[in-house]
Amino acid sequence: MAVRIVFLGPLRDLAGMAEREAPAPLDWDGLLAAVGPQVAAKLREERVNLACAGRVLADKTALLAEDGEEVALLPPVSGG
Question: How far apart are CA 9 and CA 2, in angstroms?
Fold first, then answer.
């Protein structure tokens, strides 16, 4: 029983991996513990978002990912 965590953009570089698995169910505190201190610090920033099962969470601290779901870590987007 696992949740797949996907690191995107600069968060992938910071984590040193594209994805990893964590035990399900996975909540906010579990996610912070699973990704390591550097990525966890970035996740606490307001501009970094989470998507769970394909939906961006309005309140990322309300994360509750179940077995087989994917949590994507979405870095800030720049553009013009």
Answer: 23
